[in-house]
Amino acid sequence: MKKMFLLFSHTLTSEQKEDAQSSLGVEEFVMLPSDLQALWSNVPATLGDLSDYLEPLKNYFQNNLQKHDVVLIQGDFGATYRMVNELKSLGAKAVHATTTRNVVEEEIDGTIVKTSVFEHVRFRSY
After folding, report:
1. Is 70 in contact with 95 (CB distance < 8 Å)?
2. With a cut of 50, which residues of the chain have pLDDT below it?
3. Residue-level pLDDT at 44
4. pTM
């Protein structure tokens, strides 16, 4: 069974789930355990080197990932770079979501309010 591990800080939309199933053959979505999710969502800007910080995530994927699995990964640029390399070395496919941004302008009580609406387009491999 092909899984998509979610290494990012958002919730998948129904469009993203449908796309992962149809274009990537994903049958199951796997969220990180809460402690690892907190780690990924709060990468300290003060750290000069992320090696030790990311070690729990590397261990998790080494123990849970199968070669045919997919990891949706987005987050801190440096952490993402390191983890994409780690995931590829384990034989996984690392992807990120692409979107289009549509700007909607409304007048509310005499003020122009601009709202950006992001729509999923596809998953792209790193």
Report:
1. yes
2. none
3. 97
4. 0.86
Identify which of 121, 117, 116, 125 has the alpha carbon closest to the alpha carbon of residue 92.
125
**Cβ–Cβ under 8 Å, residues 116 and 91:** no
- The sign of the torsion formed by the CA atoms of 93, 41, 30, 65 equals positive
pLDDT in tens, 79-98: 999 999 999 999 999 999 99
Domain edges within the chain:
3-125
